[in-house]
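Sharing a chain and its predicted structure for anyone who wants a worked example. Both blocks are below, sequence first, tokens second.
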Amino acid sequence: MKQKIFISPFLLLLLIPGCCVYHPQTADIPLIKRKNDLRIDAGISLIPTYHSTISYGLTNKIAIQAFASTGGDDRKYLHIATGLYKAYENQMVMELYGGFGYGYGDAYKDSNPGNLYGNYQIYFLQYNIGHYTNKSGHLEFGFGIKSGYFHSNLTDRNYYSWGSETGPYISYKENSILLEPLAFFRVGGERLKFSFKAGGCRIFKLAHPEIYIPTADLNIGLGLNYSPKFK
């Protein structure tokens, strides 16, 4: 029994591929509570990336957010968003963000000596709900779901099928619908907490479903979350 418990985390890692054009992003769910509320989140994910999020309460109703990640296979992603939020007396927060994301990815298969690479743009809405702590609390948790329009411009360098060693290569401009849920918890002190995030991803092609976009179904992020104190 002990051996099965020890092996299971490594089996989980096998389910998280690194060779993908797009993967679930481990952006922070900040749970902004008031004007001047600031959240700074930074860490790493199991799909090898470094990520960072800055979220700020611009007014008592409006918040802004910037997120960036970078990792292996030249993967890069950046998004900016603005949103509405409302904090309740029972320490619950609801947020609704709308934003734009831009990224670059490169994917390959070991059985096919080629790769698929290019950029993509995302126009999205994200709804968050969660529970924050007061001065004596230690645990925050919540859930978010992002959905939007995913436009990709990818070049097939012998990824789908063998064409040529030197090109020219075929490019595909595709439109899809993105669905990306994310759950999190944070634990620690009043200002500095350890953060854990787990997210999934599905891309639904609007045309040419046979030309699939390689994505990762699951990603897990670990990091630190800091909220400085303002007067």
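Comments welcome. Confidence is low (pLDDT under 50) at residues 1-16.
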